[in-house]
Amino acid sequence: AVERTLSIVKPDAVGKNVIGEIYSRFEKAGLQIVAAKMIKMDEEMAGGFYAEHKERPFFKDLVGFMTSGPVMVQVLEGEGAVLKNRELMGATNPQEADAGTIRADFAESIDANAVHGSDSTESAAREVSYFFNEEEICPR
Ligand code: CMP
């Protein structure tokens, strides 16, 4: 099925100037970028986005990292977009990510891991609407 998923290029990858290289991987895999914006999140915005992790020991560091610089937020659309994006990203911990994945190639650590991607169609729906109105999404 054609799906939408929420993708974030995190502050480490924006800082390394590899937004375009990461976008190329989405496009080469047949995913279309149907909405995108650069934002600098504040604590409230990042904390709300990661609310499901609120009780986790890494929550404070995660919010600190995600507010440390600008991020690119995009909606990817395509056949099986949620899983396809997760395959392109590789494992959360870049040390465990398969060769050729975005995290293997661009990420340094489990916090500075270059990208985020929704983990299910349910979280994709929530995450897309967290950042975008329906009018901001431009399917072709
Ligand atoms: P992300 O897909 O953005 O979702 C939550 C983030 O928390 C995750 O990527 C990691 O960057 C970060 N994180 C830090 N420590 C952990 C951990 N032990 N398990 C899962 N995620 C972690």
TrEMBL record:
Function: Major role in the synthesis of nucleoside triphosphates other than ATP. The ATP gamma phosphate is transferred to the NDP beta phosphate via a ping-pong mechanism, using a phosphorylated active-site intermediate.
GO biological process: CTP biosynthetic process; GTP biosynthetic process; UTP biosynthetic process
First-level EC class: transferase
HAMAP family noted in UniProt: NDP_kinase (MF_00451)
Family indicated by similarity: Belongs to the NDK family.
GO MF: ATP binding; metal ion binding; nucleoside diphosphate kinase activity
Gene responsible for this protein: ndk
SUPFAM superfamilies: Nucleoside diphosphate kinase, NDK (SSF54919)
The enzyme's E.C. designation: 2.7.4.6
Name the UniProt record assigns to this protein: Nucleoside diphosphate kinase
Ranges for domain Nucleoside diphosphate kinase-like: 2-139
Provenance organism: Bermanella marisrubri
